[in-house]
Every structure is written in structure tokens, then in C-alpha cells.
Amino acid sequence: MPLFTSPFAQLDLIRQPDQANEPLQAFDAADEYLLAHLHEQGLAGDARVLLLNDSFGALAASLAGRARVTSSGDSYLGQLGLTVNLSRNQLPADGVTFVPASQWAVGPFDWVLIRVPKTLALLEEQLIRLHGQLAPGAKVVAAAMVKHLPRAAGDLLEKYIGPVQASLAVKKARLLLATPQAKHAPESPYPTRYRLEKPALELVNHANVFCREGLDIGTRAFLPHLPKHLGRTRVADLGCGNGVLGIAYALASPQAELTLVDESYMAVQSAEENWRAALGERPVTLRAGDGLAEQQADSLDLVLCNPPFHQQQVVGDFLAWRMFQQARAALVTGGELWIVGNRHLGYHAKLKRLFRGVEQVAANPKFVVLKASK
Hints:
Low-confidence stretches: none
Strand order of the largest sheet: 5-4-3-6-7-9-8
EC number: 2.1.1.174
Number of domains: 2
Largest sheet: 7 strands, mixed
Structural class: alpha/beta
CATH topology of the largest domain: Rossmann fold
Family: Belongs to the methyltransferase superfamily. RlmG family.
InterPro entries: DNA_methylase_N6_adenine_CS (IPR002052), RLMG (IPR017237), RlmG_N (IPR058679), RsmC/RlmG (IPR046977), SAM-dependent_MTases_sf (IPR029063), Small_mtfrase_dom (IPR007848)
Domain Methyltransferase small: 201-371
CATH superfamily of the largest domain: Vaccinia Virus protein VP39
Number of strands: 20
Pfam family, one: RLMG_N
Order of helices and strands: EEHEHEHEEHEHEEEEHEHEHEEEEHEHEE
Helix content: 25-40%
């Protein structure tokens, strides 16, 4: 893989999760453009820099040791990428402070460098949180590849920060330079809430949660077919989102021991709030993580999963396949993975390569619910 070169450093960077023959880079031209602009403007050694949505640490590793750097994002894999890439380039682990998006990064900051995220609600929440966190004369610059830069991103910067000037495109990347103005403290529209009838739940959804305005249609197809167990079953909701699958299962299975895991910090934050609202102090394990990578082998009886088919802007079944492999390793012999998926994704054939038996539990014209037995 090529090295990432900027005026600040030359780095060997990898994506997370790491895979052999990775076809994609851990950086792009928008990262290069941001750092070139920062260098051109001049960066003082004591400058306080906030990085938002730095995918795998390209920006943070470049600036580590050259300023007081705080990086904040909603991806556990992004944080893992930062940690791995700092170590890979012999940079001190404490050279960058990481703040999950479920928490607030506290300024004041002299520079805010933003990679525009796929979910504009996340960008909006991040811009709202900048109110009162900018030092006098602070500069706010957002960057994206042109094909991933909606007009609404500039509108949000103008609404919450101030007038925006768009740069010329360089290598198909563009910068949005916002000039901070005094504004009234904004009210955040997040988290959002919606209600379910079966089971009767009100679900909280923080800004970066998938389908935060209403239950996604895959989960809607899955819920009526969730298994029920009366014993002390050990269950994981893998890629839990707002926690609805795990919570619905737990309500019907009072002795089950649940683990809810997602790589989004805001998803885990939402799931925790929803679990407490529905189930009070009933014990549960909630964590942001790389799927079931940290789960002990042969420690689960059941895994529930509505697998994602994208990572940031990249679409594909790599993450789903990885989740299936993780589930197989974590399940006891005879344990089951239950999933819902679009018919056209062909998960049935993929699961047959890993599991002893695969059955179709339910189907509609768009989705299938599958049970795979180890």
C-alpha cells in the first residue's frame, strides 16, 4: 500500500478491521487537502486542534506531537485504526486524545478539521456541540471527496458556525471553510424517539444511529420471528444499533443473559438508555467493539444479527461475512446464529460455508430470516 504523505509526516497506514490484500486505502485526497491547507495557514505548536470523523487516524497521526490534538468520532474501528496506526508509525499513544462521539470534546479549540460523515445528523450534532468551544479566531474546515459532499453539509456549517466558502476541487476533493460568528446557543434535535407497538417500547436514537426516525424494515421483518427461551440462555445482539432486537428478546426470555455490541458509540449509548427504560436494572453487557472479536470462544448459545452492508462510504458484504465468522467462533456447539437479510445478498449460501445447518425461518418479498446451527 502507498504511504500517506503530507507536509507534516510520511506514514504507513492501514484500515480496520485489517484484512489480507486490502484493496482500499486508510486515507484519501480529502485528508491530503486538509493537511496541506493547515500547513499553508500555519500551525502553532501549542495550537489546540479538534479532528472530527478522522476515519483511521490519517489526520491525527500526521499531527501527533505537532499540536495539542483531540480526535472525536463515532466509530470503534476508527479509534482502533488510530491506535494501530500510531503504534505502526512509532508515534506515542498519548500523542492524541480520543473522545467517543457519545461524549463531548471540551475546548476551546483553535482549529476544527472535519471529515464530512455519511450521516449528516452526526455532522449536525457535532456542529451544535462546537457552540462555546471555539477559541477567538478559531478556524473550522470541513473536507470530503466531491462525490460524497452534499450541499446540505455546507448549509449546516453556515447555520451553526458562520459563512462558508468552498474551495476549488483538488484530486476530486473539496474543502468548506467556515468563518465562526457569534450565534445563539442552538437546541439539538437529537436524540430522536419513536414508538413500537409489539413489543410496546419507546426507543431513543442518538444522531448517528441507523434508521433513527423509525424501525428499519429488516428489523421489522425479524421481530415477529425471534426465538424464545425460558432458560438461562447466553445471547448476543451483534451490531445492536438502538438495541431493539436484544431488548425484545430479553422481554420474552426473562432469564436470558444479554450482550449488546456495536461499533458505533452512539448506538451503544442509545441501546443502554433503551435497555434501562424497558428493563430497569436487569443485568446486561453493553460495549462498543469490533463485533464479537473480544468474545470468548464457545461462550454464547444464540447470536441475533441484522448485519450492515456498508462501512462508511464503502458498500459490500465484508463486515457481514466477518460477523458470521465471529458468531461461529463465539457460539457453543449446537448454538445458533439468527439473521435477517435482503434476499439478493445470498446470505444462505455464505452461512452454509460456515455452519452445520442453515434453515429459512421466515421470508417476505424483500427479506429472509435465517437460522444457522453450529
